Amino acid sequence: MPLTPCAPLPTLLLIPTGIGCQIGGFAGDGLPAARLLAAASGCLITHPNVMNGAALYWSDPRLHYVEGWALDRFASGALALAPVRQQRLGLLLDAAIEPELQLRHLQVAEACRATLGLSIGPVVTTDQAVGVSLSRGPSGVSWGQLDAPDTLLRAAERLRSEGATAIAVVTRFPEDAGSDALQAYRQGDGVDALAGAEALISHLLGRHLGLPCAHAPALLPLPLDPGLDGRAAAEELGHTFLACVLVGLSRAPDLVELFSADDAAAAAPLQADLLHPSQIGAVVAPAGALGGQAVLSCAERGIPLIAVEGNPCLLAITAEALGLKALKAASYAEAAGVLLALREGIAVEALERPLPPLRPL
Q: Which listed residue, 222, 224, 293, 307, has the most CB atoms within 10 A of its CB?
């Protein structure tokens, strides 16, 4: 089908987690940027940490919720995405979660069934504690380890065998209420200490199952903080972070493995709205965080890269350092303008002054 000027331009929005991004590094504070870029592109594919705002969330048919491992595979050309009307959500709970806290999470799931009409169940608890521990790399980036990853995989396999088509996982995270790092994060000046371990868990399950997966940490509520930064406030509205995960996964696209370039043509008659990696029109990422697999895969395939300079982080992996060609944007608002130009077939350089003269060969 020929493109029309108003056809969607499928775009990847990447805001890596656990690296202290000033936008998207907190509790769903990347959502305004995602909503804007979804409107500008008509089709935005992004990962859960951009969309997850604990008790807050936003549904939009132009936004596609894709876990980081699957997003990397999509960007590399190994996966296609198949939009769905509804996923059946399996709920995976860590055996280390205390009974009262486990009940809070079950009540969130019940509320999402009764209030939002989500399809949730079955529920499986791991056969032993997962044993999550948190750490930081030399740069300050957050990371984590699991004592018993196999218990997660066994429980997830059981959910899949019982008919779950997407997995929401909740593991018990260590309490760190008095730490300086947590206080800095709550006041808008720090790194999300949980993010690296959360990414590890969702990547592990996604890679093993080939299903949409996302994670919510189980923690006790924190005491009130009058100096709380608004970007962290969504995490303090309730007893769990599970609601946004359930909503995001409820319409997360199915993951379709591609084994050859002909797979898209074979799949097209079966599902006209299949999102194939050949359709990616642009990728948007922080200017200092361009070293991830998805960005590099897109750059290798010649997909336009929009580097947002107005979202600093702990890293300095820039286009210049990597030898990449990038369209620079001062903010996500400017990135939206660049996307609109690409979508409408307007040369971005024609919008800049001075306009360089043509150079005859």
A: 307
Dihedrals φ, ψ of 277, to 5°?
-60, -25
Measured between alpha carbons, how far is 207 from 197 in angstroms, rounded to an integer?
15
pLDDT of 67 over the 80 cut: yes
pTM score, whole prediction: 0.93
User: For helices 31-41 and 332-344, what crossing angle results, to 10°?
Assistant: 10
Beta bridge partners of residue 135, listed in sequence order: 143
The pLDDT of residue 1 is 45
Q: What is the pLDDT of residue 18?
A: 92
Question: Would you call the peptide bond into 354 cis, given omega within 30 degrees of 0 as the criterion?
Answer: yes
Is residue 358 in a domain?
A: no
User: What is the distance between the alpha carbons of residues 321 and 269, in angstroms, rounded to a whole number?
Assistant: 43
Rounded-to-integer distance, Cα 40 and Cα 9, Å:
9
**Pair 122, 162 in one domain:** yes
CB-based contact 207:252 (threshold 8 Å): no
Residue 113: partners with Cβ closer than 8 Å, 6 or more residues away: 119, 120
